[in-house]
Amino acid sequence: MPTNLPPQYHKIEDKFKAARDPAEKIAHLREMMAIMPRHKGTDKIWGEHRKKMSQLQEQVENAKKSKGGGHNPWFVHKGDEPQILLLGAPNSGRSSVVAGLTHAKAVVAEFPYSTQLPLPGMMPYKDVQLELVDTPPIANFPLESWVLDQARSADALVIFGDLSAPDCCDMLTGIISALEERSLFPVEWPDKDDEDKATNQRCTLLALNKADHPDAEVNLEFLDELIGDRYPQLIFSANTAEGLEAFSEAVWSMLRMVRVYTKAPGKKVEEKAPYMLPRGSTVLDLAGKVHRDFLEQFDSAKIWGSGKFDGQTVDREHVVEDGDVVEIHLKSS
Ligand SMILES: Nc1nc2c(ncn2[C@@H]2O[C@H](COP(=O)(O)OP(=O)(O)OP(=O)(O)O)[C@@H](O)[C@H]2O)c(=O)[nH]1
Ligand SMILES: [Mg+2]
Fold it and tell me: What distance lies between CA 32 and its chain's CA centroid?
């Protein structure tokens, strides 16, 4: 049976054959699988590739163990921006969202398991950037350890539901329960009064994708019965883009943060680079974020926005609000 593999496939296959490092081989194999057409003629090759992929992943895991480190080479480390981990069943549309809302080259494919490794991408929200992390699908429980490691490191979770899938509700509730079984609790908002509890909680948004599908309505009804309003939800279609424009706003709302601008005395506002702080933060928290030494050196601040009047002098306990401009005065200045 003809396979109709595109010429590009063979070029990548040559690189795959030439590569010695298992991690590099995995990357090439992933590319090959992403572009190979899926039909009866390619079933056998697809199966062989899946098997090869598992063997290579095992090799990488064993190499890690023999080095004595639990270091995961694919782990996406957190930078300065809030990191949001996208989790979901195969084909639920995580990569479509990352490809649509960031510059990351996430692979979107009709077939499941097209994403093999976590992939970060920066999503703009107004004048800040939020880091989305696309992930391989969750198909088996209990969860693999990479999911837990990555979810613990993230600031927030977006759990995808595929509204076209007959097992949409089971997969969503399955992922939530599986996280809880491993003591990581998806919640609307962590219990900030109990630090120990909050360490194991992650604020969570449900991204209910494929709203354009005829089965979406019935799945939404089931979900309403099962999960109700336990989490904020966004219902959208990544394919038609309907509702997708609200994605960044929904993620930002879930994070409950504020953007605060700073200005040096006598200078202009640093408009390009607001600081992102949790809601309820004070001007002292902001000062500490600008520079750790400012916590000691802080004297007072002037504020434009949430003050009673523009340029009002406020003390360290003044709570900043979204859009505030703050001028920090240090003891020595
Ligand atoms: N009808 C419909 N199809 C969609 C929608 N969003 C994504 N798809 C399709 O669903 C398939 C899977 O999309 P992906 O974005 O690759 O899904 P994924 O969750 O990253 O998939 P894996 O990484 O393979 O688990 C593709 O064929 C998409 O075109 C949508 O809103 N509606
Ligand atoms: Mg994907």
Answer: 25
Nearest alpha carbon, ligand 1 atom 23: 115
Ligand 1 atom at minimum distance from 160 CA: 19
**Is this model's pTM higher than 0.90 or not?**
no
Using alpha carbons only, how large is the chain's radius of gyration in Å? 23
Neighbours of ion ligand 2 (CB under 5 A): 95, 115
Both 116 and 223 in one domain: the answer is: yes
Residue-level pLDDT, tens digit, the chain, 333 residues: 777 899 999 999 988 887 777 777 888 888 899 888 888 889 999 999 999 988 888 877 776 655 433 567 788 988 889 999 999 999 999 999 999 999 999 999 999 999 999 999 999 999 999 999 999 999 888 898 889 889 999 999 999 999 999 999 999 999 999 999 988 999 999 998 888 788 899 999 999 999 999 999 999 999 999 999 999 999 999 999 999 999 999 999 999 999 999 998 888 887 678 999 999 999 999 999 999 999 999 999 999 999 899 999 999 999 999 999 999 999 975
286-321: buried (b, 16+ CB within 10 Å) or exposed (e) per residue? Answer: bbbbbeeebeeebeebbbbebbeeeeeebeeebebb
Ligand 1 center to residue 160 CA distance, Å? 11
Residues 249 and 285 grouped into a single domain: no
- Do 240 and 272 belong to one domain? no
Domains contained in the chain, number = 3
Q: Measure the CA angle with vertex 56, ends 151 and 67; round to 5°.
A: 70
Phi, psi angles (nearest 5°) of residue 280: 95, -5
For residue 238, give the ligand nearest its CA.
1
Residue 289 lies in a domain: yes
The rounded Å distance from CA 91 to ligand 1 centre is 5
- Only one residue has tokens 């992403």, namely 34
CA of residue 32 to ligand 1 center, whole Å: 18
Counting ligand 1 atoms within 8 A of each CB, the residue from 38, 94, 96, 213 with the most, and so the one to mutate, is: 96
Residue 84 Cα to ligand 2 middle (Å): 15
